[in-house]
Design brief:
This is Glycoside hydrolase family 16 protein. The chain contains 8 helices and 18 strands. By secondary structure, it is of the alpha+beta class. It binds 2-acetamido-2-deoxy-beta-D-glucopyranose (5 copies).
Length: 331
């Protein structure tokens, strides 16, 4: 059953692309409306296609979150087939799914960071698929490139472990930052309000998303979708759109968050001074295994055996792949 599913997942991106093209007449109509808006967002960065890796650095040190992985440098990752761009312009970041390891050995994986960092803006990430499964801890996130963690902040846009259903969106910060929940969100609930984090105590402040299409297997079964983060002085607001629900203005490159309806997560600046807690944020995409979150959570996850046993078996990682359509940043 597992290999049939993975074949389906890997075939999804092209089907999804075909649908995007079929809708182009509709998109053009919506563009005309979006372009007439005042103060429209302007595209400043677009990461997609054959030059994708030019704008990212490969992190190749020990995993700071304690995972059983070797993060490969760019040359090694490329040679091992763990980081590449397909001919259809989809960028793939994979975990080694061929090497049988002995229990306790680390598995090869990839962690990349954008060379650029930001102090606000509108971030749009379109992924066709994401890693998931027993022992797997994928994350698409932002972290300060200039301050020592947690000062400067961390913004976790997509994150979860093992067979989780539903994404978790989390902020980590220095002292004196609370999630003040006064704004309505859709299909989510607050799991913690204390954003202040430290190495031994770092749940952060977070929303759990209840729609299974926001994470893992069910995300991939829909050919993924779009996560959007609008980061302003007034706070951070997140939306999720499953593949079939992506608004035309996003696909057209003229995004208008005021038209997107109720967000899935809002962190207003009423409980947290955003500008002093979050700055110089680089984008990061990685997949680790076990580590500080997936490890302790393994026992209650319904996965067989131990987390380290799962890492040893390459068949567990056939769907542990990020398939990235594009990431765009607007100001
Ligand atoms: C991939 O991107 C390049 C550069 O933007 C473009 O010329 C090419 O048509 C794209 N290929 C596909 C299959 O979309
Ligand atoms: C999301 O929330 C809306 C409104 O409460 C509800 O109708 C819908 O079923 C929810 N969707 C999911 C997938 O939970
Ligand atoms: C939370 O926000 C509300 C309204 O936005 C404000 O009245 C209240 O003082 C805030 N609470 C805290 C603890 O900042
Ligand atoms: C952000 O980065 C810039 C450029 O590296 C640096 O000059 C500035 O001090 C950093 N900001 C903070 C608050 O550390
Ligand atoms: C993952 O690895 C474990 C340990 O070897 C094994 O028991 C399990 O069947 C594997 N799961 C899948 C889905 O292949």
């Amino acid at each position: 059953m597992h290999s049939a599913l993975s074949a389906l997942v890997l075939s999804l991106p092209l089907a999804a692309l075909a649908r995007v093209h079929a809708d182009s007449a509709l998109h053009r109509r919506h563009t005309a409306i979006a372009h007439s808006r005042r103060n429209a967002y302007q595209l400043t960065d677009h990461f997609q296609g054959q030059s994708f890796f030019d704008d990212w650095e490969f992190f190749n040190q020990a995993d700071p979150t304690g995972g059983y992985v070797n993060f490969l440098d760019q040359q090694a990752a490329s040679q091992a087939g763990l980081a590449y761009v397909q001919s259809d312009n989809t960028t793939v970041l994979a975990v080694d799914d061929t090497t049988q390891l002995s229990v306790g050995q680390n598995r090869n994986s990839v962690r990349i960071s954008s060379k650029k960092s930001w102090n606000g803006g509108l971030f749009i990430a379109d992924f066709f698929a994401m890693p998931h499964g027993c022992s797997v801890w994928p994350a698409f996130w932002m972290v300060s490139s200039t301050a020592e963690w947690p000062n400067g902040g961390e913004i976790d846009i997509i994150e979860g472990v093992n067979n989780n259903q539903g994404n978790q969106i989390t902020l980590h910060s220095g002292a004196d930052c609370l999630l003040n929940s006064t704004i309505q969100t859709l299909n989510s609930s607050i799991t913690n309000i204390h954003c202040a984090s430290s190495p031994g105590d770092d749940p952060g402040c977070s929303y759990g998303l209840t729609d299974p299409r926001t994470f893992g297997h069910e995300f991939n079964m829909q050919a993924g979708g779009v996560y959007a983060l609008e980061w302003q002085d007034s706070g951070m607001t997140f939306w999720f759109f499953s593949r079939d629900d992506i608004p035309c203005d996003i696909t057209d490159g003229a995004p208008d968050p005021t038209s997107w309806g109720t967000p899935v997560a809002v962190f207003p600046n009423t409980g947290c001074d955003m500008a002093s807690h979050f700055f110089n944020q680089s984008l990061v995409i990685d997949t680790t295994l076990c580590g500080d979150w997936a490890g302790p959570a393994y026992t209650g996850s319904g996965c067989p055996g131990t987390c380290q046993e799962a890492v040893a078996d390459p068949t567990n990682f056939s769907v542990a792949k990020w398939m990235i359509n594009y990431i765009s940043v607007y100001q």
